[in-house]
Amino acid sequence: HTDKNRRMAPKKATKGKKEILAGNRETLRFYGTLIATANGVYLLLRILWMYDSFTFWHGLGLCVLLACYGLSYYFMSSAAKTTYTESGVLSDVGIDLNLEGGVPEHFKDLVILTAGVQVMTVLSDFFWLLLLAAPVYAVYLLWDSVIHPWMTAGSESTEMDEKTKKKMAKKERKMHRVIYK
Protein backbone atom coordinates (compact mmCIF):
# COMPACT_ATOMS: atom_id res chain seq x y z
CA HIS A 1 0.00 0.00 0.00
CA THR A 2 1.36 3.38 -0.91
CA ASP A 3 0.64 6.78 0.54
CA LYS A 4 -1.40 7.65 -2.54
CA ASN A 5 -3.88 4.91 -1.74
CA ARG A 6 -4.50 6.17 1.78
CA ARG A 7 -7.39 8.49 2.26
CA MET A 8 -6.47 11.64 4.06
CA ALA A 9 -8.95 13.23 6.43
CA PRO A 10 -10.08 16.57 5.05
CA LYS A 11 -8.34 19.48 6.71
CA LYS A 12 -10.66 21.56 8.81
CA ALA A 13 -10.97 25.08 7.47
CA THR A 14 -9.64 27.75 9.78
CA LYS A 15 -11.22 31.14 10.25
CA GLY A 16 -9.44 34.37 9.48
CA LYS A 17 -9.09 37.21 11.95
CA LYS A 18 -11.93 39.21 10.42
CA GLU A 19 -14.32 36.24 10.56
CA ILE A 20 -13.44 35.58 14.21
CA LEU A 21 -13.87 39.28 15.02
CA ALA A 22 -17.30 39.37 13.35
CA GLY A 23 -18.35 36.14 15.07
CA ASN A 24 -17.19 37.40 18.47
CA ARG A 25 -19.07 40.68 18.04
CA GLU A 26 -22.23 38.81 17.05
CA THR A 27 -21.86 36.43 20.01
CA LEU A 28 -21.39 39.27 22.49
CA ARG A 29 -24.35 41.12 20.98
CA PHE A 30 -26.54 38.00 21.26
CA TYR A 31 -25.63 37.32 24.89
CA GLY A 32 -25.98 41.01 25.80
CA THR A 33 -29.47 40.98 24.30
CA LEU A 34 -30.30 37.76 26.17
CA ILE A 35 -29.17 39.29 29.47
CA ALA A 36 -31.13 42.49 28.86
CA THR A 37 -34.27 40.59 27.83
CA ALA A 38 -34.19 38.27 30.86
CA ASN A 39 -33.65 41.23 33.20
CA GLY A 40 -36.45 43.17 31.49
CA VAL A 41 -38.90 40.29 31.85
CA TYR A 42 -37.91 39.82 35.50
CA LEU A 43 -38.15 43.53 36.21
CA LEU A 44 -41.59 43.87 34.62
CA LEU A 45 -43.17 40.70 35.95
CA ARG A 46 -41.55 39.99 39.31
CA ILE A 47 -40.65 43.42 40.60
CA LEU A 48 -43.30 45.71 39.08
CA TRP A 49 -46.31 43.44 38.57
CA MET A 50 -45.84 41.01 41.48
CA TYR A 51 -44.10 43.43 43.86
CA ASP A 52 -45.97 42.20 46.94
CA SER A 53 -44.29 38.77 46.59
CA PHE A 54 -40.80 40.25 46.08
CA THR A 55 -38.85 39.56 49.29
CA PHE A 56 -35.33 40.10 50.56
CA TRP A 57 -34.40 36.63 49.29
CA HIS A 58 -35.58 37.50 45.79
CA GLY A 59 -33.39 40.59 45.91
CA LEU A 60 -30.44 38.50 47.07
CA GLY A 61 -31.11 35.99 44.29
CA LEU A 62 -31.24 38.83 41.78
CA CYS A 63 -27.83 40.00 43.01
CA VAL A 64 -26.45 36.48 42.48
CA LEU A 65 -27.91 36.40 38.97
CA LEU A 66 -26.45 39.80 38.14
CA ALA A 67 -23.05 38.65 39.42
CA CYS A 68 -23.23 35.54 37.19
CA TYR A 69 -24.15 37.69 34.22
CA GLY A 70 -21.47 40.27 34.95
CA LEU A 71 -18.64 37.80 35.45
CA SER A 72 -19.59 35.70 32.44
CA TYR A 73 -20.00 38.65 30.10
CA TYR A 74 -16.82 40.29 31.40
CA PHE A 75 -14.85 37.11 30.80
CA MET A 76 -16.24 36.68 27.28
CA SER A 77 -15.58 40.30 26.33
CA SER A 78 -12.07 40.16 27.82
CA ALA A 79 -11.29 36.93 26.01
CA ALA A 80 -12.46 38.43 22.72
CA LYS A 81 -10.57 41.71 23.17
CA THR A 82 -9.02 42.92 19.95
CA THR A 83 -5.73 44.73 19.56
CA TYR A 84 -4.59 46.90 16.70
CA THR A 85 -1.13 47.99 15.62
CA GLU A 86 -0.14 51.66 15.68
CA SER A 87 -1.04 51.92 12.00
CA GLY A 88 -4.57 50.64 12.71
CA VAL A 89 -4.11 47.12 11.37
CA LEU A 90 -5.92 44.34 13.22
CA SER A 91 -3.24 42.54 15.23
CA ASP A 92 -5.07 40.10 17.52
CA VAL A 93 -8.73 39.14 17.87
CA GLY A 94 -8.44 37.23 21.12
CA ILE A 95 -10.12 33.86 21.63
CA ASP A 96 -12.77 32.63 19.21
CA LEU A 97 -15.91 32.64 21.39
CA ASN A 98 -17.65 30.22 19.02
CA LEU A 99 -15.01 27.51 19.27
CA GLU A 100 -16.49 24.23 20.47
CA GLY A 101 -15.17 22.81 23.71
CA GLY A 102 -13.41 25.94 24.87
CA VAL A 103 -13.73 27.77 28.17
CA PRO A 104 -15.94 30.52 26.64
CA GLU A 105 -18.51 27.83 25.90
CA HIS A 106 -18.95 27.22 29.63
CA PHE A 107 -19.52 30.92 30.25
CA LYS A 108 -22.08 31.05 27.45
CA ASP A 109 -23.84 28.07 29.06
CA LEU A 110 -23.82 29.89 32.40
CA VAL A 111 -25.50 32.94 30.83
CA ILE A 112 -28.17 30.72 29.26
CA LEU A 113 -28.76 28.87 32.56
CA THR A 114 -28.94 32.14 34.48
CA ALA A 115 -31.38 33.72 32.02
CA GLY A 116 -33.58 30.64 32.08
CA VAL A 117 -33.63 30.54 35.87
CA GLN A 118 -34.34 34.26 36.09
CA VAL A 119 -37.35 34.09 33.79
CA MET A 120 -38.70 30.85 35.27
CA THR A 121 -38.51 32.13 38.87
CA VAL A 122 -41.36 34.44 37.96
CA LEU A 123 -43.51 31.30 37.75
CA SER A 124 -42.19 29.51 40.85
CA ASP A 125 -39.50 30.05 43.45
CA PHE A 126 -38.46 26.41 43.12
CA PHE A 127 -36.67 27.27 39.87
CA TRP A 128 -33.95 28.95 41.96
CA LEU A 129 -32.71 25.43 42.67
CA LEU A 130 -31.66 25.07 39.02
CA LEU A 131 -28.80 27.46 39.75
CA LEU A 132 -27.18 24.63 41.68
CA ALA A 133 -26.49 22.96 38.32
CA ALA A 134 -23.65 25.44 37.67
CA PRO A 135 -21.41 24.56 40.65
CA VAL A 136 -22.24 20.86 40.29
CA TYR A 137 -21.13 20.96 36.65
CA ALA A 138 -18.01 22.95 37.60
CA VAL A 139 -17.04 20.31 40.17
CA TYR A 140 -17.64 17.59 37.56
CA LEU A 141 -15.39 19.37 35.05
CA LEU A 142 -12.71 19.86 37.71
CA TRP A 143 -12.87 16.18 38.62
CA ASP A 144 -12.93 14.95 35.02
CA SER A 145 -10.16 17.13 33.64
CA VAL A 146 -7.85 17.80 36.61
CA ILE A 147 -8.32 15.74 39.75
CA HIS A 148 -9.04 12.27 38.37
CA PRO A 149 -6.26 12.33 35.72
CA TRP A 150 -3.81 13.59 38.36
CA MET A 151 -4.78 10.86 40.82
CA THR A 152 -4.56 8.06 38.27
CA ALA A 153 -1.46 9.27 36.40
CA GLY A 154 0.95 6.88 38.13
CA SER A 155 -1.35 3.90 38.48
CA GLU A 156 -1.50 2.86 34.83
CA SER A 157 0.99 0.15 34.03
CA THR A 158 3.40 1.01 31.24
CA GLU A 159 4.65 -2.54 30.89
CA MET A 160 2.93 -4.82 28.40
CA ASP A 161 1.63 -8.17 29.47
CA GLU A 162 3.09 -11.33 27.93
CA LYS A 163 0.27 -11.84 25.44
CA THR A 164 0.60 -8.30 24.02
CA LYS A 165 4.38 -8.71 23.70
CA LYS A 166 3.92 -11.91 21.69
CA LYS A 167 1.38 -10.27 19.37
CA MET A 168 3.66 -7.31 18.70
CA ALA A 169 6.67 -9.57 18.04
CA LYS A 170 4.57 -11.63 15.59
CA LYS A 171 3.45 -8.48 13.73
CA GLU A 172 7.04 -7.26 13.53
CA ARG A 173 8.26 -10.59 12.10
CA LYS A 174 5.41 -10.57 9.60
CA MET A 175 6.35 -7.07 8.40
CA HIS A 176 9.95 -8.10 7.73
CA ARG A 177 9.12 -11.19 5.71
CA VAL A 178 10.15 -11.24 2.10
CA ILE A 179 7.33 -12.18 -0.23
CA TYR A 180 8.32 -14.20 -3.32
CA LYS A 181 6.06 -14.35 -6.30
Describe the 3D structure.
- There is one protein chain.
- The protein has 5 helices and 2 strands, in the order ααββααα.
- With 181 residues, it is an all-alpha fold.
- A two-stranded antiparallel sheet has the order 1-2.
- The radius of gyration is 27 Å and the shape is flat.
Please tell me what the overall shape is: flat
Spatial extent as radius of gyration: 27 Å
Give the ordered list of helices and strands: HHEEHHH
Number of strands: 2
What does the secondary structure layout of this molecule look like, with pairings?
Elements: H1 17-49, H2 56-79, E1 83-84, E2 90-92, H3 103-120, H4 133-152, H5 162-175
Antiparallel strand pairs: 1-2
Helix pairs in contact: 1-2, 1-3, 2-3
